[in-house]
Amino acid sequence: VVSIGQNAYFDNQGSIEVDGYAEVGNVVVVGIQQTGVGFSTLTNEADASIVVSAESGHGITYGADAFSVGAFVIGTSAYVQNAGLIAAESYVHGGEGISTAIGSEAYGVYGFATTTNSGTISAHAVDDSDEASYSFAYAVINKDFYFQSVASMANYGTVTAHAETYFGAAISYGVRNYALYAEVDNAQGATIQAISEVEYAGFASAVAVDNYGKYYAHDTNAGSITAYASSHYTEHYGRFTYVAANAIGVIEDARYF
């Protein structure tokens, strides 16, 4: 679905499913792309769903890229309100590739970027190639260009980012906020989680909440925020001849104050 207007509004009350597959080559899949010159608002109602999947078998002259995003909303101010399901999945199976899955992205050019979730938002990226590869999973991103205004997340449901790599790097973020002022509120009974797993050898990093406000950053949690990262080491030569894993629940950064 593509929605464009001076002020763009999209209210999904049904089911949107997009699948892309290439045996050889790169794949990009987007559930909803919405652009508003002024306000841009996406509402995904209760019992509604936006489910996307991108899958590639192998690259052509280099590793394949598989990229999926459930909802991409951009405007002077951008707002995503989800009460249903937004899920993105990406898979790469061969070559030195990159698998990226993003559940929801809200970008405000000069105004705010906000996501309110009372349903489920998830991102799952898998790269099971036996060559050095990367997988990136971002469940929710709220970002202001030029750090002009506010990026915020109010979560009353479930947010999950899961990155899996056989050999290479697996990186996951549950919520990422970037703005002049940034706020994350995780309500009672709500969950934000990030999981990164490397099966053979390499680097695993999981961050549940990354909240950056140039002048102000604030986080409140009455629910559950968890991060898990694991990596295994098998001695070999070449790239990723090491093992490392780090898991961080919350990063709160307001470095100018």
List the SSEs and their pairings.
Elements (H helix, E strand, L loop, with lengths): L1 E4 L2 E5 L2 E8 L4 E18 L4 E8 L8 E18 L2 E8 L5 E11 L4 E5 L2 E8 L5 E12 L5 E6 L2 E29 L4 E31 L2 E8 L11 E11 L4
Parallel strand pairs: 1-4, 2-4, 3-5, 4-6, 5-7, 6-8, 6-9, 7-10, 8-11, 9-12, 10-13, 11-13, 12-13, 13-14, 14-15, 14-16
Defining key terms:
257 residues, mainly beta, 0% helix
Q: Explain this structure to me?
A:
The chain has 257 residues and is mainly beta. The chain contains no helices and 16 strands. It has a six-stranded parallel beta barrel.
Q: Into which percent range does the helicity of residues fall?
A: under 10%
Which class best fits the helix and strand makeup? mainly beta
> Between the first and last Cα atoms, what is the distance in angstroms?
41 Å
> What is the oligomer described by this structure?
single chain
Radius of gyration: 18 Å
User: Given the C-alpha coordinates, what overall shape results?
Assistant: globular
Please give the largest β-sheet: 6 strands, parallel, barrel
The tally of helices reads: 0
By DSSP, the count of extended strands is 16
Taken in chain order, the helices and strands follow as: EEEEEEEEEEEEEEEE
Spatial strand order of the main sheet: 6-8-11-13-12-9
Mean pLDDT rating: 94
Strand content: over 45%
